[in-house]
Amino acid sequence: MTSALIRRRRTVDAVARGAAAACVVLLLAPTAIALTALVTEGARGIVGAGGWSVVRACAGTLMLAGIASAVAIPLGVGGGLYINEYRGGTLARAGRWAAGALSEVPAVVIGLAVHALLVAAVGRFSFLWGAAALALMIAPTMAHTTADAARSVPESVREAAIALGASRWRTTLFVVSRVVHARVARAAWITAARAAGATAPLLFMTEARDWPRQLTSGDDALPLQVFDAASRPDARAGAWAAALVLVTVAGVMSYFARRAATPRGHT
Amino acid sequence: MTRSDPPDETEKMRADCLNAWFGELHALKDITLPVIENKVTAVIGPSGCGKSTFVRCLNRMHEVTDGARTSGDVLLDNRSIFRADVDPVSVRQRVGMIFQRPNPFPAMTVRENVVAGLRLSGADVRDVDSVAEDALRQVSLWVELKERLDAPVERLSVEQQQRLCIARCLALQPEVVVMDEPCALLDPIATSRIEEIIHGLRDRYTIVIVTHSMQQAARVSDYTAFFYLGELVEYDDADVIFTKPADSRTEDYITGRFG
Predict the structure, then answer these.
(1) For B174-198, b where at least 16 C-beta lie within 10 A, e where not — what string?
(2) Which band of pLDDT confidence, cut at 50, 70 and 90, is reported for residue A220?
(3) Which pLDDT value is given to residue A267?
(4) Chain B, 216-255: which have a CB under 8 Å from a chain A CB?
(5) Topology at the third CATH level for domain B11-103+174-254
(6) How far is B51 from chain A (nearest CA, A)?
(7) Rounded CA gap, B39 and B183, in Å?
């Protein structure tokens, strides 16, 4: 190989590496700027007047996301397993279509639908309607993710279980679900974190804060507080504080998602 | 089929005019074949001759495939396994199966894999450790793995995984074990270990093994059946099949003229 060719290759390599590194910097820079502003402004907001309301909103967010997840995650996982493991049936086909369609619906439309169906029908607001809207976001996403994860399980694994005398449902429950467990758990944490940070489906429920507390003192939510406070110049500190807590909550949930994705015995 | 069975041998299973289809494909044609208790029966033949389909009919795994169907009968202890009142789950617990590719359950430990069959069948496994030890001893894995019972199964070699699959099958205490080319992915040393295990198991279990290797069939089997194009060409003592076959097609196959 001639030295000219080697020099050319080194130059091309350096340019390619430099371009890739520049892309990474361009990706990281806005995140770093946003995070710096978030931490400094958010800390100031928490220390200041926004502190107590942020704590209240944080409790509200955790309650909303907790109730929604407790209902929607088992529903979504069970539905996703059924959709894949019994895929020949009409119900499974309908379930796959519904999960796909619902997971594509914009969150604001889900909020509107819940408002029209529950709030308008019942005639009064409830903390639970907010949780219902979030559950409608979580369940189809979980069903979709679980079905995809189950589809990636090799047929040979199911065949091994059936050859051992397992029935179809036992194979699904004790083998397939075990294999997809880490992937589904990770998706559950991420989906719950996204739901916790979702503002759009809760916009129609904001009046709920004016109603008597029905379930808990945490009748506010962080995304709503960010939305409300950001639109009022005198309350910006509260918006920063709520945003910092929201990002921290999402970060903690992402940590659990990563932990859930690490199979037992692997480091 | 050329052989008439001596009276002192007990038939554990029998295929009786067994036919099998995959959709329109007629994969097995009128197979009548005994499986003798506590003996090793080898099924040999070229690719696509119906060997695997035959053994999958023995524990009703054939019907798991979409579009698959059978006619004729398979008897287990002189009772049809296809009767309407027979649960295929119970057949599969009595007739265990080992596959060509080791298929331990991912995301489970060695111990969990060994007792998985018992758990899946809903049995109350009180002494998991002794069940696991007994099954692993039968496949000579106990010494190798007794310190790694809680290790992920993915960390085992392919050969260890295959022996683990055999242990998982034996933990259910089946009466018959069918093996569909269990050594196809193994090197000669690993193959000889599996063959030693088969030798060790013949006193307790009735074994049917599908193999592409005629040397293996000659080494491990008491009886050998030669399949060709979905038909049973010849069945006899392994010694007879490999030294004085009655059918010219069998002779051509074992002497390597085709296959």
Answers:
(1) bbbbbbbbbbeebeeebbebbbebb
(2) low
(3) 42
(4) none
(5) Rossmann fold (3.40.50)
(6) 17
(7) 19
Q: Is A19 on the interface with B (CB under 8 A)?
A: no
Which pLDDT belongs to residue B3?
A: 56
Cα–Cα distance, A54 to B118 (Å, whole number): 52
| Minimal CA separation from A58 to chain B, in Å | 36
Q: Which of B3-17, B69-83, B112-126, B173-187 has the lowest mean pLDDT?
A: B3-17
What φ, ψ does residue B202 adopt, rounded to 5°? -65, -25
Domain total in chain A: 1
CB proximity A255 to B under 8 Å:
no
Which of A164, A170, A179 lies at the smallest CB-CB distance from B107?
A179
Domain boundaries, chain B: 11-103+174-254
Residues of chain A with C-beta less than 8 angstroms from the C-beta of B62? none
* CATH number for the domain that contains residue A82: 1.10.3720.10
> Which residue of A152, A162, A164 to mutate against B (max B Cβ within 10 Å)?
A164
**What φ, ψ does residue A261 adopt, rounded to 5°?**
-80, -10
